[in-house]
Amino acid sequence: MRVIDRNDHSFGRLWDALWQQDVYQFPLYSNLHSDYYKSYWNYKQFSDLSFVIADDDGPICGVLMSLSEGRGGRELSAYGLPIYYCEASGLKWSKYQSAYKSLRKKFYSILKDCVPCYLRYEDYLVDGNLSYMGRIFLEHGGVALPKFVQVIDLRADEQELYRRIRRSYRSLISWGTNNLKIIVVDSKTICKEHMVLFRQLHSHVAGRETRSVETWDIQYQMICSGEAFAVFGFSDECMVTAALFLHNEKYCYYGVSASMREYFDKPISHGVLWTAVRHARKLGCSYFELGEQVYALPSKENFQAKKEYNISKFKRGFGGEPHVHLVIELSAHSGDISF
What we know:
Number of helices: 10
CATH architecture of the largest domain: 3-Layer(aba) Sandwich
Oligomer: single chain
CATH topology of the largest domain: Aminopeptidase
Mean pLDDT: 93
CATH class of the largest domain: Alpha Beta
Number of domains: 2
Strand content: 25-35%
Structural class: alpha+beta
Largest sheet: 11 strands, mixed
Radius of gyration: 21 Å
Distance between the termini: 19 Å
Low-confidence stretches: none
């Protein structure tokens, strides 16, 4: 078994081969998205510690991971996102056994150089099973909590997807498509002005610039490269609602959106989201993730938690089923890791 680090010239090729075998291929872990988070968390210094385990036949498993040092101390993550683990499918068990030994040894050697540090890993529980990386975290005292996300299976036909939408939403979708000019912007139709308008709308809604212009430029690059698309809604030539959706060949993820508060009495977002679902299906995506779900209504005093609850309820209205992920957090100190 060979351990190939990020700085090895063959890493990119091997990781891409491994990525093609991933069940979901979450778009949040593309190179451009890593660039986005480097810019978003610009007060942190990142060192890429990603690696792939391979033999003469090709890659078997790999980890996307970086070390950051900032105001919050040392953290092992994937540029602010949970550490990402990827594994080839359909191989002989003996190959996995050998690869797991190499992975554990490499991971421990990284930890030895990084402790004390905080780690966060998200296990997608593919086929209901805990990944090998998840087992490592739990064996060393990781604390696991379930995370629920709403996912639409786009392999159903469009009429069936529409039937699964909350009945009260159907007239609201019709209102949006009839009263707004809704456009889909992709690599063929994007221009700089689109993202300038999106950024201005986002700042207007938030009351301030919440992130750097560079992050918006990177999202523009995502659309240009075919890793994302945007859906905009206009009223009288004014952009009143917009949303960005990250995607690859398999998976589409509802990224960021903004809508003018002055239009909150009108259903301006419903037509935009349904348009995005339809477009993702046309692209050939199998899954459309609406985001994390909050089920319990919080106390009235907690405005942010209540807002997240209402957003979750809104998203569930577009159908789909809850998928369970396992978020595992670990604080590692010297002496905690068995080498």
